[in-house]
Amino acid sequence: MTAVPNQQTNAVPEVDYDHFVVDVREDATAVYAGIRERCPMFFTPAYGGHYVLLRHQDVYETSRRPEEFSSVTLTIPDPPVLPVVPPLTSDPPEHQKYRALLAIDFNPTRIATFRDAIREQAADLVNDFIERGSADLATDFIFPLTARATALFLGIEKEDLATFQRDAIELNTVIYTEPHRFEEVQGRVIEFYLRHIERRRQSPRDDVASHLIDATLDGEPVPDDINARLHALLNGAAGETTAAGAAGMILEIDRDPKLRQRLIDEPGVWPTAVEEFIRFVSPIPGFSRTATGDCPIGDAVIPKGEKVWLNYLAANHDPEAFDDPDSIIVDRQPNKHVAFGAGIHRCPGAPLARIELQAMLEQLLTRLPDYRVVERDAAKLLPSATRLRMNLPIEFTRGPRVDLNNYRPAN
Ligand code: HEM
Question: Which of 99, 297, 314, 331 is most buried (CB neighbours < 10 A)?
Answer without folding.
Answer: 314
